């Protein structure tokens, strides 16, 4: 009898489980039907691929593309980079003037408003910059304000800040403020198109948590709703005073857990713009999407650097070895075979997006960046061979096909030098571990260094990387002559600055602390529902230009 | 029985502390997550130091662990690096994954056991051979292959379903992902049931039951199946935990924002609070599921008694 009751009990439990599941299914079925019917709200709206931003979406706290996408739509700074030419043009700024390349007077246009209707004033900028620079606010883009006078007081390397506000910023009247820099920097106004310099409304300071849930900015779009990890819905900002008014009704940024799923959804017609195509699909993307595929230069340069703090890599002989190694790499083959044309062999230290007016000069690297096995072998021999006879090429391998290209580069070097194990790959599992090793000066051989520009200026490709003790000078390269040229460029007027930076670049390429590998392109695919899709120099889609059929 | 349960629950405490500590050490040993926040450039030391102290990363690891555990008991799992409380992430992720896991388990039980009984009773017949072959195929093909293939065929090629599940993840949209998730285990359940049934079909008590003149149906369901279910139940119990964690692959393929996705993202971005928090909950789920399995033994087989 006992047994019998128990059986019934299990039987019932099973029955209940099945019923529950079936009811859930039934409900779900109804729900999805409703979702399909609700497609009306998506009429005229661009549906775009997105992943969850890694940091809270604040102008001075976002340094990756996904958060940058939102800021690009919801904010406008003093300047704006033209999507096609990369040239900085006035947006909120009426004029930015200086007589000594150090003290700047900034006048704002009148009539700009945030999406909540409050006016954009000089104070909106000054408060935002002070917030971004203050070390206790823990903003990852703080370093953008490092050229402003008083930065060391609000952002000391150690200990508590001595001041709350940058002493170099002064509000003159409601639409004018002045900036004093701590050094001459003629190209500084051109940097102001970067999102870190965006103005912030009062609400940001009075109700910070509320603002983070639904950011308020002065850009062409306003944020309607933000469900973390799922979707951000943006619509036209009716207060927007800029020229580039949106040509669509809005943008829905949909969070995808995997690039492949985004790509599949694009093919199925459930998504309009995908700006992160999975590496495995690059080969077929053009065909799969019937040509609705974009492959254009982005401001990203990949290089490998040498530890200039290591005795083995100093001196004239080591320079010859570096040169030889550079010539031993068949860049063309690697970019075609591994990246299917989404990288271009690099011939200078900047990027094609700068255009020649901005300082890009194809072929500046000369024969050093050309594949020449015979000369490579000769140079390495002249330099006394690779220090220690073997060299390791290292990078993190958790993203971006790094393992594949490193193996290809090493193979190319080994093949050229006719030695099987001259170059070996030393993979590091995570990016953060790799970063700590680089910071701790633990490098012995070649290591990957990539640079994604902050603003389309030659200065940004040279100074942070090659100036003595600069923030991203991972090879710890230091050369008095180069530094002198950089200083000179910063104190001369804009046109002369570019040529002087190029002289510095030429000198760096002579010393060769880093070997240019390739320029990285931005890629995107789009559906037949939209037109006018293109990427800006930061490889973010220009959402305002997209038309929905 | 009550005392047994209490004893088992008490035993869970050291297991829980041990596992969470191991996970904690492993996650924090991988490297410094603050470095990763600065993208492809060297972190600015002042900001990095501020961030480290915000997340207690500047303290020795044992102290970090104590601080973390202290907070957990007050229900505070800390904040993910984008400022969102981990409990909020759990509140959205767990219901979705539980829904997915329940559907998968139902598939496993219903399809797996039915196929197992059918094949077990018809050993050597064509249906037995066919099902065995099929399970072999299913077991040998990895989930991401079946998943992406099913998604491509049904979602893109034929357009029957939306390839990506919507953020609300209603059960209707989860049917295919659940089936994909369940497939491998389903094959195992089928094989386990088949062997067990085949073995027990020759047992004395079955012959007795038949000799008593009981209807065939009753013999199979009450006598044969019940006795054959013990290995299957053991498997299903451990599978509950596996399904929740193993949903990682399936959830990525179908864009389901559940536990697997949060774990994956946490690992990729070295978001230690998310990883440790989610794994801690998974540990509890695992422990409870195993306890439930042990209790179910007694239900299935009265000879097993707990005191």
TrEMBL record, chain A:
Entry's Pfam families? SBP_bac_5 (PF00496)
Q: Where is the signal peptide?
A: 1-26
Annotated keywords = Signal
Alphabetized SUPFAM superfamilies for the sequence:
Periplasmic binding protein-like II
Do you know which PROSITE patterns this protein is assigned to? PROKAR_LIPOPROTEIN
Gene3D superfamilies associated with the record: Dipeptide-binding Protein, Domain 1, Dipeptide-binding Protein, Domain 3, Periplasmic binding protein-like II
**InterPro entries cross-referenced by the UniProt entry:** Peptide/Ni-bd, SBP_5, SBP_5_dom
The record places domain Solute-binding protein family at 89-472
Q: Does the keyword Signal apply?
A: yes
Look up keyword ATP-binding and say if it applies.
no
Under the heading CDD domains, the entry gives:
PBP2_NikA_DppA_OppA_like
Q: What is this protein called?
A: ABC transporter substrate-binding protein
Source organism per UniProt: Streptomyces iconiensis
TrEMBL record, chain B:
- Which CDD domains does the record match to this protein? TM_PBP2
Localization of this protein = Cell membrane
Domain (ABC transmembrane type-1) ranges: 94-297
Q: Where would you find the membrane-spanning parts of this chain? A: 12-31, 96-119, 131-154, 174-192, 224-245, 275-300
How is this protein positioned relative to the membrane? Multi-pass membrane protein
What are the entry keywords?
Answer: Cell membrane, Membrane, Transmembrane, Transmembrane helix, Transport
Q: Into which family does the record put it?
A: Belongs to the binding-protein-dependent transport system permease family.
Its protein name is ABC transporter permease
Biological classification of the source: Bacteria, Bacillati, Actinomycetota, Actinomycetes, Kitasatosporales
